[in-house]
Amino acid sequence: MDDYRLHLQAGEPGEEGAWFWRLDDAAGLQIAASWAASLADALDAVKRVSADLGLDGTT
């Protein structure tokens, strides 16, 4: 299995949301990123992206 890194950054609530998340591969290349209104929303988005990419171990 390849290595992946998840970056979470808390920010100030505003137009783009309070949390920024980014998923990178082992080489540091960005796979996906977005803003979310809450930490729970950010983690849910990461779960969806992981499942869509087959990284969740169910495929």
From TrEMBL:
Top-level division of the source organism's lineage: Bacteria
Protein known as: DUF1508 domain-containing protein
UniProt source species: Tsukamurella pulmonis
